[in-house]
Amino acid sequence: MRCGHAAGLVPADPGRYLIADAILSPISLGDYAVQGSVDLLKAIEGVAQVYAVPKPDFLGLLPNLYERKSPRQKGVLEGLMAGHPALMFPAELSRRDAFELAVAEALPPWRMKTKSAKAAADEMRAVLTIVADRLEGGRDERR
Question: What's the pTM value of the predicted model, to 2 decimals?
């Protein structure tokens, strides 16, 4: 990323921000999750200001590869939810073998027959349902 005027950070290749209607940002729940998210939000703002375009709808930060049994990750997620509730997406995707297997087999998790795949499919459907609802409800005819 590079600085662009007073607008803040503008990525070297701003194209994805110029054509996006909405952005959903998957994040890992490591120590630097917040910093990467701050940079993303600055990039969205910077591109909108520098190029005089509408900002894409920010759908939120999606906790991804979440280790539910990890006290550390649980604490990071709770801290993000408490400190930045408006930025957080209201669902998460857990670390599951079924997601990796689905990618390896080029199948969606809902087509797989294991218990882990059913849980993965339920999580994925919840995320996709929220995204679809937000896109349908917030559709803007700027193009």
Answer: 0.81
Closest CA to 88 of 59, 51, 65, 131: 59
Q: Is 83 helix (H, G, I), strand (E, B) or coil?
A: helix
> What would the pLDDT profile of 2-59 be if each residue is shown by its tens digit?
444 444 567 778 888 888 999 999 998 887 767 778 888 889 999 999 999 999 999 9
Output the DSSP codes for 21-43.
SEEEEEE--STTHHHHHHHHHHH
Amino acid at the residue 125: R
Residue 76 gets the label, from left (phi > 0), alpha (psi -120 to 50) or beta, of: alpha
d(CA 28, CA 115): 24
- Return the bridge partners of 128, or none: none
Q: Which domains does the chain have, with CATH numbers?
A: 1-95 (3.40.50.300), 96-143 (no CATH)
What single-letter amino acid sits at 120?
A
